[in-house]
Automatic annotation (TrEMBL):
Pfam families per record: WXG100
Protein's UniProt name: ESAT-6-like protein
Organism: Acrocarpospora corrugata
Source organism, top-level taxon: Bacteria
Annotated InterPro entries: ESAT-6-like_sf, T7SS_ESAT-6-like
Length: 96
């Protein structure tokens, strides 16, 4: 039973908006890190030396974590959307 359909629909809309934020951040993270060379020697054509090696080592280490963060953002967005859908369904229940 929907106690206050308007409030429930507002909450659903807020969850949808937050889901879009998470999706947007996931896409931004993916775009930023897509071009970073993480393979050993990946930047050898334009950057060599100890600093390049240290960067490549650190980038490799962080690459997996970034992938996990991106997937977590997307999973959170999906969960928020499911929750919003349940709220919308609740708001449509007849009042008694």
């Amino acid at each position: 039973m929907a106690d206050n359909p308007h409030r429930i629909l507002q909450e659903a809309a807020a969850k949808e908006a937050l889901a879009r934020v998470f999706e947007g951040h996931a896409g931004e993270l993916e775009a930023v890190f897509r071009g970073i060379p993480v393979a050993p020697g990946g930047s050898a054509n334009y950057w060599t030396g100890a600093a390049a090696g240290r960067f490549a080592d650190e980038a490799q280490r962080l690459d997996k974590g970034m992938s996990e963060l991106i997937e977590t953002c997307r999973a959170t967005a999906a969960n928020l959307r499911r929750s919003a859908e349940r709220l919308r369904a609740t708001a449509l229940l007849p009042m008694s």
